[in-house]
Amino acid sequence: MIQDPESGQFALPGVMQSFWKLKERAAQDGWHLILNSGYRSFKSQASIWNRYNRLYRKTDKLDAEGRVRATMTLVSVPGLSRHHWGTDLDISERRLRGQLVNVQPATPAKIVEFYDWMDLNAPKFGFCKVYLGKKGAVRDEPWHWSYFPYSRIYESQFKSIQDFHRILDIHVDDVKYLMRHFPEVFKQETRSFNTDCDSATQN
């Protein structure tokens, strides 16, 4: 892994180098790209998962199934996150940091303009928008980009794993529900992936 000096985030060398090239291209058009997230350890992912899970427990009074389903729309189950691979980046723009949301009728024009620029240019550097919200558990994430020259390999290996028991532990909230229903949880996670990524990237 290598580190992005501006954000402090980490990714595999080829991924980060391609991001820097994309960043240079963006600067030519007046955009300043920044990373909100890169590689995440299991512990880091569990912390994010638990934070959302506990929020739903507190505010919505959901049962275990409801909490897991709701949390999965926002963050992957620890051990299943593509951020573990070092291939996936959450990319924002300096002036828009903290403002990126799913596109709605009321979404500010500047945000839509930035998304349109990324959709046009990121694939030229090997990146694909991997979550489109068409199916599966994960909602549309227009900020999440996967470096497909690498992640297509890891994704294939990931989908072939049969036993995930060793990666889930007591530090993951609602782990008992996750283990009892893991085949369906895993199916919902993998069905979230954009199957058009192979043809979308040009590297």
Report on this structure.
The protein is of the alpha+beta class and 203 residues long. The chain is built from eight helices and six strands. The strands form two sheets. It has a four-stranded antiparallel β-sheet. Strand 1 (2-3) and strand 2 (10-11) form a beta hairpin. Helix 2 packs across helix 3 (64-72). The longest helix is centred in the N-terminal third of the chain and has 18 residues, at 42-59.
Task: Write a brief caption for the model.
With 203 residues, this protein is of the alpha+beta class. The chain has helices spanning 13-28, 42-59, 64-72, 109-121, 148-160, 175-180, 182-190, 197-200, and strands spanning 2-3, 10-11, 33-37, 88-93, 127-129, 144-147. The protein is built from 8 helices and 6 strands, in the order ββαβααβαββαααα.
